[in-house]
Design goal:
binds adenosine-5'-diphosphate, six-stranded parallel sheet, Rossmann fold, 579 residues, 3 domains, 20 strands, globular
Amino acid sequence: MADVLEIRPQDSQAEEPQQLTDGFHLVIDALKINDIDTIFGLVGIPITDLARLAQAEGMRFIGFRHEQHAGNAAAIAGYMTKKPGICLTVSAPGFLNGLTALANATTNCFPMILISGSSEREIVDLQQGDYEEMDQLNAAKPYAKAAYRILHAEDIGIGVARAIRAAVSGRPGGVYLDLPAKLLSQTMDALKAQQSLVRVIDAAPAQIPAPDSVKRALDVIKGAKRPLILLGKGAAYAQADADIRALVEKSGIPYLPMSMAKGLLPDTHVQSASAARSFVLAEADVVVLIGARLNWLLSHGKGKTWGGPKQFVQIDISPTEIDSNVAIAAPVIGDIGSCVSALLGGIDASFPKPSAEWINAIAERKNKNLAKMAATLEKNPSPMNFHSALRAIRDVLKTRPDINVVNEGANTLDYARSIIDMYEPRKRFDSGTWGIMGIGMGFAIGAAVTSGTQVVAIEGDSAFGFSGMELETICRYDLPVCTIIFNNNGVYRGTDVNPTGGKDVAPTVFVKGARYDKMIEAFGGIGYNVTTPEELTQALVESIKSGKPSLINAVIDEAAGTESGRLTNLNPQSGATKK
Ligand code: ADP
């Protein structure tokens, strides 16, 4: 129990002083009793003392320069650990900044809790114009898995327990917890307060799949001629790594990892069909989805990408995910660990292996594509382009499979995703379900703080801009984060021109020749400016060896890069500019 205040009740002659505690202490105690040891946030009215107290009570408080990035750090910490990451913000604008990250966490199924201070209910509800007045609870609801407000100190234990359970049970997601300023200074009897705390038992209980659903799935897989396993980030989140690997290897079925599932099995695994992605998606007749949704990232399970008719087996914890885009022949509802282990139980020596014809066809396509890619990567154009720069990074990271990789951008994301191999689970953190920019430094800090190991963030120059000020945070906490900026002077590329010939540059163009490396030097970090793959290799090796905050400004051809990366089809163009 935290520090307590001692008072002698005025209306009592009792000898023993009554011990009091307050809302500030109770919030910290309620988190600590649930083994939550880190808060990501940004201080201000009314939560500054909450942050101070958290630190004084032995928790880690990581202070950011903008709440969105604190929220992203909390979300990625939740994904890495299966414990909700905590983000603490002030009211109204601070809350709204954090809400972006909360919505992104919910969309990605990452468990996090956004805790925000808020103004007084009486004034907010009568709209009398309080300092930072805002009905935060209702604003949060549409974007969160759950949202709660605590009004009384005696409810803090229950409120925090509800938030934790909501964040991690079933399909994980973001939870909002509203703490009005008055609550924090409310006092109550310390003993009663201690008794009101709740240690959450079995926060994410196993959900065992129904045996008939497992049998149905095994029957569908048995009947397949060209089976494929598709691993999503839900599979990585589940931490059922050994069983997932056993399922792939025992069944002999080729697999495709979604981007954040890369490394669940090493990308160099012989059964990986990544280099033949389009081929297997189009040709497979049975697809086993494990923790992956048939959303836009998978063309909604239909259309040209998916070729001929196919049957889907889908393992997911959320029953309503099933049939969301196309009919699912065999849903298996439960947690991935339990579902995969149940399927494994049905795969014995007599289980039919995929035909040699299917395996050979994939191998042939894979080898052809890998040879083509190898030739592209071998080129050494001047100026450096995405491929030659990524070749340099790939070769360094190959020697350090334990390194966490953060990746965002348009072209930078598309190319790095396929060129940089991953070898260990939950080491790749990227734009995720929304395909967004802005997660970079938040995820990098969250990953560095959570793992205590090296992070390399591979960033487009545009993507980096959304969270660049957090370089100061990285330097302040002396985190082993090396940020590499693919600098081609603009969004997508830097060569667009203003058609009017006016003074303003084109909407996609940035300052030419910007030196992002100087930004980190301003905070005491190490900056590198590189223009060749050899310089990039040297800088990256040196930076990783130092374990210090660093930034590599990698100058690439400003004409390199395509509009919207590989999402050109999603980008509506006006008839006037269509080429
Ligand atoms: P990706 O973007 O990699 O394809 P998605 O985020 O679309 O992955 O899908 C993740 C899926 O995994 C979600 O449908 C979610 O309900 C599911 N999921 C998350 N955690 C678990 C778990 N522990 N057990 C089962 N399913 C899970």
